[in-house]
Amino acid sequence: MGCGYKKLRITRDKLSFPPRGSAKSVNTLCSRSAASVQNSKFFGDFEFGNGTREGHLQIKTTFFFSIRVKMPIFAGYMTDMRNIPQHIAIIMDGNGRWAKLRGKERGEGHFAGMEALQRTVYNAANLGVKYLTVYAFSTENWGRPQAEVDGLMELVCKGVEMHTPELKKQGVSVKIIGDKSRFSQKVNEALARIEGHTAGGERMTLVLALNYSSRSEIVAATKELARRVKEGEIKAEDIDEKMISASLYTADMPNPDLIIRTSGEYRLSNFLMWQASYAEFYFSDVLWPDFDNEELEKAIESFSARDRRYGLVK
Fold first, then answer.
1. Torsional sign, CA 144, 152, 118, 135
2. Which of 27, 152, 158, 209 is deepest in the core (most CB within 10 A)?
3. What is the pLDDT tens value at each position of the chain, 314 positions in all?
4. What are phi and psi of 101, to 5 degrees?
5. Cα–Cα distance measured from residue 209 to residue 177, given in angstroms and rounded to the nearest whole number
């Protein structure tokens, strides 16, 4: 049936697990014969049910799994079973409420949110997602208390220092979208560093929307096209949707297939409004710091069950 947070039903004659941290697919050979597992010493002790075509794999270890059978997910495990969205965008909401519920400062909620982002990046990459765009800081967020804004800017710099080496190692490239002109020199240097050091990563692109506003993005694109018309580079009647899309921050990216918003809120909040024209939406009640692979899988399962017709009839 699949891997992940479900009981794993064995319908193969062999599961050959890759080394820890590998993104390579599991080798699977469809057969009606009994199942066997290699590398059991690494993964822990395994017990099979009836050992036949539909035996159940029971895992007795806490090294890599929970009691709910939390299998490590690698690209290739699920692609034959699910329609994995090429581009997922996430509105990461709920850090402050998460902290308040635990009697903590808002800054601690933001730090926990950064840890949730780290998990989600690698989970998404392992599932085969090619683009992950996250709403990290909106233009409206400048209106928050100065201490919180300062803490968020410091967290950006700290996050770059902490996570750049692993992102590069995992083949994840980082792209920044938004108006960087308002950031301090220290923040801009950190952003340039993470983009530069991870350039060339081909496994997945992590897009950080910082000081981002979809309305401002569209206004800037419109002004740029107006300038080109004025200078005679293009004619006004030539402007179409493709030309506008090519003038946005996301010009070199596919539009999002799936937009996820956490914490039980149901709005876009000025995020990718042009690009979201045909995106599917998934709203989760989970606060962002608690967002995990199980919730990501739920979102993808919901996406996979939908019939995307793009206004056509099938």
1. positive
2. 209
3. 334 333 333 333 333 333 333 333 333 322 222 333 333 323 333 333 333 333 334 433 333 333 233 334 333 444 444 689 999 999 999 999 999 999 999 999 999 999 999 999 999 999 999 999 999 999 999 999 999 999 999 999 999 999 999 999 999 999 999 999 999 999 999 999 999 999 999 999 999 999 999 999 999 999 999 999 999 999 999 999 999 999 999 999 999 999 999 999 999 999 999 999 999 999 999 999 999 999 999 999 999 999 887 777 76
4. -65, -25
5. 5
* DSSP 8-state symbol, 170: T
Catalytic residue among 13, 83, 141, 270: 141
3-state secondary structure 287-301: CHHHCCHHHHHHHHH
Catalytic site includes residue 93: yes
Strands 12-16 and 258-261: unpaired
Tokens representing 290 are 């608690």
List strands edge to edge, sheet with 56-60. Answer: 8-9, 56-60, 45-48
* pTM of the entire predicted model: 0.75
Which of 22, 148, 91, 107 is closest to 283 using CA atoms?
91
Could you give the CA distance from residue 296 to residue 282 in angstroms, rounded to a whole number? Answer: 10
Task: Count CB atoms within 10 A of the CB of residue 165.
Answer: 11
How many helices and strands (H and E) does the chain possess? 8, 11
